[in-house]
Structures are given as C-alpha cells and as structure tokens.
Design goal:
Length: about 575
C-alpha cells in the first residue's frame, strides 16, 4: 500500500470522508492559473458553506506550481505534485489534529520520534503564543529542545484580511548525520513534511483581531517529499515515484543518470506536468497565453533537454514517457486514461511545431550574428523567448564563431520576464478566504446565463470549458467550431439581458449527483463533485452543479455586454464580457 492509500485509510478510520481531487485548472478563481494547494478547491467550505460530505474531509489533490519553474532540475523541486490533506470544518481542533498527525507519522509510517521536530507560533501583537499546540507536542513525547517557537513561518492568512491563525509544522531530519538534540529550523537538514493550520481568528481590514465562531483545521503533506523521506533518499528523483521514469529516459538516451541529472529531472518533471495539464477536462492546449503558455513552455523545455542528451527528436520518446506516467497514475485519476490519445497528440504536435521553430530560430541567429562581434542581451532574450533558444545554446553557437554574448544583459531581461511569469502563475489567492467580492459573485452568476444563452443561440451542444472572473470582467471559454457572427453575439447579449430584466430568482438545493445529472443539471467537471452535490437553478433558464456563490435574483446583475470574442484553442472560443450598472 503506497503513501496515498495509507493516508486515506488512516483518516477515514478517524471519521473523515474522502473527497475527489479537483482538476488542476481551477473553476472561477482568477488569482491562479492552476490549483496550487490542497485547500484551494475547499475555500467556499472553509468560509462557512456546508460541505455535502460533512465536517471531516480527506483527499489527495493534484497541484501545479510554476513560480519556481527555473529551480526544477535540482533534487527537490517539481512543477506538478500531489498534496495529501485532511480538514475539520468546525469539528475537531488542535488536540485531535496534532495527535492524529503524530500517530500517522510514528505508528502508520513508522518514523522514529527522535527524527522529528516541530515549530509552533510564538505569538505577536494581539495574537498569543500557541500554548495549546506546544503542550500537546510535549505530551506526545516531543522534547522542549525539539519544539521551536517562531513568528514569521507559523502564522497563516490568505491576504491582508480574513480568517487566519497559527500553524504548527512538522520536520524530519533528512541526513545521515547524527540527529542534533536541539532543533534549529534554519538547519537545512531538517525538512518540513507536514503543516497543520488552525484557523481560529478573523482579521478585519483595520487589523482588528477577533475569534472566529467556527474554527477550522487545514493540513497538508507533500507526497513526493514524504516518499523520499520514507525511502531514505536525498534526491527526490531517486525515489519510487520517479525511478521508472528516470530509468526509461536513461534507456532512451543511452546515458546514465549520474552526470546527466539536471536534464533528466527536467524531462521527467515537465512531461509529468504536461500529461496532467493536457489530460485535464478543461481542454487546455499549448498556446501563447495563460495555462496554454505554461503547457507549451514545459513541453518545449523538456524537448530542449532531450536534445541535449542526444535523444532522436524524430523518435516517439515523449510518447513512451507519457505512457509510463499515465499507467502509473490512471488508477487514481481516471481522466489520464480517458484522455490518453489527447495527451499523446498534444505532446507529438507540440514537438513537431517546436522542431520547425528551432529551424526558424537558427535562421534568426544567423541574422543576429551577421557581421557582429557581440550578441546583446535583448537579442539573446528574443532568441530564448520567441524561438526557445536556451542561453547556453546561444553562447555555444556564438563561441564557435568567436562572438561574445552579453550574458549580464540577458540575465537582467530574463529576470524581468521571470517576475512577470511568477506574478501571473503564482497569484496570491486574490480574495482567498476573505471571500468573493460582490461584483465577482455577480459575474459568477452571469457565466451561468451566458452558458444557457449560447446553447440556444449557437448550439445545444455548447459546453463550458473554463472561466476566469475578476472584479473588472468575466472571461468564458466554451466548445464551438466557428467564430461567432455579429448576429450571434447580439442575440446572445439580448437573451442574457432579457433574463436579467426578468428578475428571475436563483435557488440552491442539494441532491445525489446522479439525480442532479438526470434532472438536466450541467457541470463542467463531473468527476470533481462528491456523491451529494449543490445545484444552482436560475428559474427554468439554467441548472448547474456549482460551488457558488451567486446572487439571489438576476435583477441584481445590471447590463450584460460582450466586449470581445476570440479563439482560445482548437475547438474552443472565448468571450470576454462586463456587467454595467444601469
């Protein structure tokens, strides 16, 4: 039994209900391109909405983070990872949470107590020292020398205001050295493996702190890191999670892992992430914007490193690696098997497209170096950003001709680009647990009306493929094989505004998922929903499975106006629209 199965079984035995992993592409969250943490899909329930599965939940969640993309290639960083989590929604609190974490680590996983240490919140301002957690750890046998009190790393809040509280982090001594008696959190041999967040306070916009009426627990443990710890390897890519993929890359390239670690790690990591993104039901395809840009960048970076290992670009090397990844995870995530052909097509097509781009890039390189003794930073970055030339390749090609490259200028330009990418892909849980704004709630409801209108005006088989909502506008992706005509856009607008002016009530009810589907309720990602679902109805106009929140009557929305209609990807169109107060 692997780590995921043991974790689920343990917490189910403690009265938790397993909930399905949400897709990697979040629904109606403008702050991030991907689900970046296990708690992200649960925000409405941590805010107080009743969860159909009750107050004790457990899951393993697919996550994608690209803010550290350029760090991938070392022993610990990954763009895709799985997060184990268990939650209490106003049920148990610190005592049980800490006790069960300790029991799972020491009894179920068999980790020696003398290799564990913890941090607790030291207290600052109006928020006191977390004495409850401190005493609980002592009662379980953790010595005072192994309990560190900190402030900065042991307090959690989603943004400037909202639900917040202390957390306690659990560390494992990941080294062959003798375990120190005294725990020093700055000692990198101590690796964090679990974090328990206790949401017990509310911080308002003026900085005032009050106790929450309902206190929640949110925990998280990374599968990749913990597996490496349990298997006693200091390189995550030598654990059982990666060994078969690394062995395959080694066989394909004819090279050993030792001495070629960076490229092999990047290929393994990036292709795993690309498999999960392209298998996601949202239908993401490589493009130059948003999730599609990240997918394209991951695939192309993997291709560049495959070329550096001498792998034949015309072979099916990427298909072989993708298949082994799909087979490894399909029993946990059925979309991998269901969309296998899509995944393989995406990887093959992007490889072929990039091969052509490389040829164009070499032509561009010839133009740049023509009668020149220096390739400036901007030109070097252009080769990187537009044609996928890593700076190493540009330097190598230039040096063969005795031409210098302005590496400092490239580095400056690259850092500017990196900061923009980090801002776009990491986000900061805008709104987060502080809740959706009134305007965003209106836009959320408007997406349901737009979806219903498109089914009438364009085609009854139109389905939502994704959405993105901010306080300024809504963006809605839908399946469609043609550019909308001016007449179609006008009729869609008119229909949405007709329903808004009709003042239709928005109602909500809970029912079994199968019953909801039979009743005609539509949903974007059927597999993410539990057996009991929340259904929002807008009169006879719209009926959808959704997490909410929504307005109570369509008359609250204002005037609906389409500002742009464009292609999102093959077979998917995108509408941008605004709501205007009348």
């Amino acid at each position: 039994m692997n780590l995921k199965d043991k974790y689920i079984e343990f917490f189910v035995s403690k009265g938790h209900k397993q909930i399905p992993s949400a897709p990697v592409v979040p629904e109606n969250d403008p702050s991030v391109l991907f689900n970046t943490a296990g708690m992200q899909p649960l925000i409405p329930y941590l805010m107080g909405q009743t969860h159909p599965y009750g107050t004790r939940l457990v899951d393993y969640q697919k996550c994608v983070r690209t803010n550290d993309l350029d760090s991938v290639g070392d022993t610990t960083h990954h763009t895709f990872f799985e997060m184990l989590g268990n939650w209490s929604l106003g049920d148990y609190f610190k005592d049980e949470s800490i006790e069960w974490s300790f029991e799972f680590l020491t009894k179920t996983l068999g980790i020696p107590v003398d290799r564990l240490a913890v941090t607790v919140y030291a207290g600052e301002g109006d928020i006191p020292f977390d004495e409850v957690s401190y005493n609980k750890w002592k009662s379980l046998g953790i010595s005072e020398d192994r309990i560190a009190k900190t402030v900065e790393d042991n307090f959690w809040i989603a943004g400037e205001s909202g639900p917040c509280g202390p957390d306690t982090e659990i560390f494992y001594f990941r080294s062959t050295d003798t375990v120190p008696e005294v725990f020093d959190p700055s000692d990198e041999r101590w690796v964090e493996i679990w974090n328990n967040v206790f949401m017990e306070f509310m911080k308002d916009k003026d900085g005032n702190i009050s106790l929450l009426p309902k206190q929640n627990v949110d925990t998280g443990m990374g599968v990749e890191r913990t597996t490496a710890v349990l298997e006693g390897v200091l390189d995550n890519y030598k654990s059982s999670i990666w060994s078969d993929v690394i062995d395959l890359i080694s066989n394909i390239s004819g090279l050993p892992y030792e001495g070629n670690e960076k490229s092999m790690r990047i290929i393994a990591d990036h292709l795993r992430t690309a498999v999960f993104i392209s298998a996601d039901p949202s239908g993401i395809k490589p493009s130059n914007t948003d999730q599609g840009y990240i997918l394209r960048r991951l695939i192309r970076r993997a291709i560049r490193h495959a070329k550096s290992l001498g792998i034949d670009e015309f072979s099916d090397w990427e298909q072989q690696i993708a298949r082994i990844i799909i087979n490894k995870y399909k029993s946990y995530y059925k979309e991998l098997e269901e969309n296998e052909s899509i995944v393989l097509d995406v990887l093959r097509d992007e490889k072929e497209r990039f091969s052509k781009t490389l040829v164009k890039g070499l032509r561009e390189f010839e133009k740049v170096v023509n009668n020149s003794k220096l390739i400036d930073g901007e030109s070097a970055f252009h080769l990187y950003d537009t044609y996928g030339f890593p700076i190493e390749l540009t330097i190598e090609l230039a040096s063969e001709r005795g031409i210098r490259v302005d590496e400092e200028g490239f580095s400056k330009r690259f850092k500017e680009h990196q900061e923009l990418s980090r801002t776009a892909s990491a986000g900061k849980f805008k709104g987060g647990l502080a809740g959706d704004s009134e305007v965003e709630i209106k836009y959320h409801t408007a997406t349901h009306l737009l979806n219903a209108a498109l089914k009438i005006v364009v085609n009854k088989d139109v389905h939502q493929k994704g959405s993105n909502i901010t306080s300024e506008r809504m963006r809605f992706d839908f399946s469609c094989d043609h550019k909308l005509s001016d007449e179609e856009k006008m009729k869609t607008e008119e229909l949405v505004n007709k329903w808004i002016k009709a003042g239709i009530d928005v109602t909500v009810e809970e029912m079994p998922k199968e019953e909801a589907i039979k009743s005609g309720a539509e949903c974007m990602f059927i597999e993410k929903y539990p057996d009991i679902v929340t259904v929002y109805s807008i009169g006879d106009v719209s009926k959808e499975l959704c997490g909410g929140p929504h307005v109570s009557n369509t008359s609250e929305l204002g005037l609906f106006k389409i500002t742009k209609e464009e292609s999102s990807s093959t077979g998917v169109r995108r509408i941008k629209a605004v709501l205007i107060d009348e």
